[in-house]
Amino acid sequence: MEVPLIDFEKLDGEKRSETMALLHQACEKGGFFQIENHGIDKDLMDKVKHLVNQHYEENMKESFYESEIAKGLEKKSITSYADWESSFFIWHRPNSNVNEIPNLSDDLCKTMDAYINQLIKLAEKLSELMCENLGLEKDYIKEAFSGSKGPSVGTKVAKYPQCPHPELVRGLREHTDAGGIILLLQDDQVPGLQFHKDGKWVEIPPSKNNSIFVNTGDQLEVVTNGRYKSTLHRVIADKNGSRISIATFYNPAGEAIISPAPKLLYPNHFRFQDYLNLYGSTKFADKGPRFESMKKMLNGHPSLLV
After folding, report:
1. How many CB atoms sit inside 10 A of residue 41's CB?
2. Is residue 119 a contact partner of residue 130, using CB atoms and an 8 Å limit?
3. Which residues form the Fe2OG dioxygenase domain (predicted)?
4. What is residue 211's DSSP assignment?
């Protein structure tokens, strides 16, 4: 299957409704899609990738191939519980840990900061569009994710090194993401990312023209009451090249209390007879307003709760 492609330029034109519908379907049916014309400076994106690759070559590559996982793979004694990746994690919001990460150049730190400032704006725009599609107030997701200092934002910077025996190991094992909205700047040459859909693994091609790949995490599934599901995905190791992955997580703050948006919940704890009473006069009308009427009735009449 093709990965849904959302063109942000079309949000301001006559194709807005069509584009919003495509976004909604991508979030509901797959949990992953790509964004083009997203407004992030492409020279800046290229520089981030260049500096991350440079940092890996100078500071991480040698130690990775001397690691236990690399030695184990050479001996073909690797277990299925290992990941063929070399990575580190940068926290951006609410507090930065960039000064605690060894050997990061000033250029990489400054470039990453500039990129993240633009990426957060994209994440917030995306969350507003999701809210619009779900019939929520435009800042609902942002506020649901916010602690005293706003949502939490961090980036996993990873290289999936060239692998001599890719049949023996995963680049990254199957998982869903714990957080909210994940925005990925990935390799434009080397494949490896796969998502699980309809019982099959879907290969995600390398990102051309610096499109941003997006997937939804566990907390967005909770907030949307299961409308937007997090999706199982993995990375396959590659024999012919090393893959870069710069995944930024727009997540709830650690102190945020997560629950489904009340607007998206079905009415609950009602007596069936009360529903039948309402149904008698609305049988041939749409069920949506009937559910909303039940919710309002329950909120206004606690005695109806069981």
Report:
1. 12
2. no
3. 149-252
4. P
